[in-house]
Automatic annotation (TrEMBL):
<keyword id="KW-0805">Transcription regulation</keyword>
<dbReference type="InterPro" id="IPR036879">
    <property type="entry name" value="TF_MADSbox_sf"/>
</dbReference>
<dbReference type="Pfam" id="PF00319">
    <property type="entry name" value="SRF-TF"/>
</dbReference>
<feature type="domain" description="MADS-box">
    <location>
        <begin position="1"/>
        <end position="61"/>
    </location>
</feature>
<dbReference type="InterPro" id="IPR033896">
    <property type="entry name" value="MEF2-like_N"/>
</dbReference>
<dbReference type="GO" id="GO:0005634">
    <property type="term" value="C:nucleus"/>
</dbReference>
<dbReference type="GO" id="GO:0046983">
    <property type="term" value="F:protein dimerization activity"/>
</dbReference>
<keyword id="KW-0804">Transcription</keyword>
<keyword id="KW-0539">Nucleus</keyword>
<protein>
    <submittedName>
        <fullName>SRF-like protein</fullName>
    </submittedName>
</protein>
<keyword id="KW-0238">DNA-binding</keyword>
<dbReference type="GO" id="GO:0000978">
    <property type="term" value="F:RNA polymerase II cis-regulatory region sequence-specific DNA binding"/>
</dbReference>
<dbReference type="GO" id="GO:0045944">
    <property type="term" value="P:positive regulation of transcription by RNA polymerase II"/>
</dbReference>
<comment type="similarity">
    <text>Belongs to the MEF2 family.</text>
</comment>
<dbReference type="GO" id="GO:0000981">
    <property type="term" value="F:DNA-binding transcription factor activity, RNA polymerase II-specific"/>
</dbReference>
<dbReference type="InterPro" id="IPR002100">
    <property type="entry name" value="TF_MADSbox"/>
</dbReference>
Length: 93
């Protein structure tokens, strides 16, 4: 039996929002770690919390990974011009 789906909408109560953020951030970082290990992939996740605090996970040196990302964007700017919405639409099709 699976978990029931929750309606995705902003959480109004500050404490609940903070707890949910921490749990989901940790889950996201765990998934990023697993993806890197299982698939030998270089993975980086950057999150700015509602408190304007920076949280990051990187399987390698983040500066080297960001430099690589910039080089790829220069070489093939089509990938970097897509918005997040366009990337999601492209991924779903």
């Amino acid at each position: 039996m699976g978990r029931r789906k929750i309606e995705i909408q902003p959480i109004q109560h500050d404490r609940n929002r903070s707890v949910t953020f921490l749990k989901r951030k940790n889950g996201l970082f765990k998934k990023a770690y697993e993806l890197g290990v299982l698939c030998s992939a270089d993975v980086a996740v950057i999150v700015f919390g509602h408190n304007h605090k920076l949280y990051e996970y990187c399987s390698t040196d983040i500066n080297a990974l960001l430099t690589r990302q910039r080089e790829v964007c220069r070489a093939c700017p089509v990938h970097c011009r897509l918005s997040l919405t366009q990337l999601i639409v492209q991924w779903r099709s």
